[in-house]
Amino acid sequence: MPTLASTLLLTLLMAVGLVFFLRAASKDRTTVVEVHSPRPALEVLEGLSGWLSERGWRTETGDPAINLLRFRGEVGASTPLALLLSLLGSVGAACLGLVIRQVLPQLGWWPLLLALLGPAAGLIYRRRAERAETFELRLIEADSNQGSTLRLRAHRDELIAIETELGPTLQLASDGRLLSSPI
User: Fold this and answer.
1) Rounded to an integer, what distance in angstroms lies between the CA atom of residue 119 and that of residue 64?
2) What does the pLDDT average to over 75-100?
3) How many Å apart are CA 121 and CA 147, to the nearest integer?
4) How big is the CA angle at 100 (ends 96 and 103), to the nearest 5 degrees?
5) The CATH number of the domain covering residues in 30-76+135-183
6) Beta strand 58-63 with 147-155: parallel, antiparallel or unpaired?
7) What pLDDT does 183 receive?
8) Domain residue spans of the chain
9) Is 182 helix (H, G, I), strand (E, B) or coil?
């Protein structure tokens, strides 16, 4: 009986791990970073705006008083990840059903029906991950002699993509925290 109790505990801990993974997979990762370029502000802004438009971002609003441009885009869920989470949820729920069946044999094979709850993990992920995102671009300093400084507020992955794809082209430089962070 102690073996079954420890197996039940480990299976329940696996379920808790799945819940936390679902939360982390759909967590908002909005970050603010300042970038500097020796190029003129207009050239940098046009380059960033064109790149964002190519990636499906739409210009939403702007505030000329504070030199702010705001873009909006729809973020979709990863279908392979949703399928993987559904599969893991089904296998994990089936394992929990087997353990419950061993601990409480009088229930018969009914606990195995818990496996039918597995696809809920993929559905929960899909519902939470699909959302509208904003990308804010604010010109902080525009000096023709020293270049331009921008404050970007967006999803961390978009900022990393800008730094890797547009960094060399527009000579963008930041403190490098985005590319060195393990998360």
Assistant:
1) 47
2) 87
3) 48
4) 140
5) 3.30.310.80
6) unpaired
7) 47
8) 30-76+135-183
9) coil
